[in-house]
From TrEMBL:
Its EC number is 1.7.1.13. This is NADPH-dependent 7-cyano-7-deazaguanine reductase. Belongs to the GTP cyclohydrolase I family. QueF type 1 subfamily. It catalyses: 7-aminomethyl-7-carbaguanine + 2 NADP(+) = 7-cyano-7-carbaguanine + 2 NADPH + 3 H(+). It is an enzyme of class 1 (oxidoreductase). Substrate binds at residues 56-58, 75-76. GO terms for biological process: tRNA queuosine(34) biosynthetic process. It comes from Methyloprofundus sedimenti.
Amino acid sequence: MATKPSKDLQAFDNPKPGRDFTIRIDTPEFTCLCPLTGQPDFAKITIEYVPDQLCIELKALKLYFWTFRDRGAFHEAVTNEILDDIVKVVQPNFMRVRADFNVRGGVYTSVIAEHRNPDWQAPELVQLP
């Protein structure tokens, strides 16, 4: 196998660091294991962020997600770990990680975790007709 799971998240320079813009990443095939039963949990992970100086590199992110495949973790822990690990690498102005887990035992779980740089001021929202 040419590639393997890796916790080595990587970043690249933001091509427009003076402008606030949003990057959205959807990962519809995230998997981890239930820490109690060992059965697989499936989720869609959505990352939205306003970069500062760095952006997350997508192949490294894919290999990072792969590291969860054989690990037992609660939904809340996984979501917060993903946020913490990515924030540590790219130090964004704002980041939101949303994990929408598939049904298990008749229950759907969504976990949303956010980070905000305290020195960053969000731009005013523009409402278009």
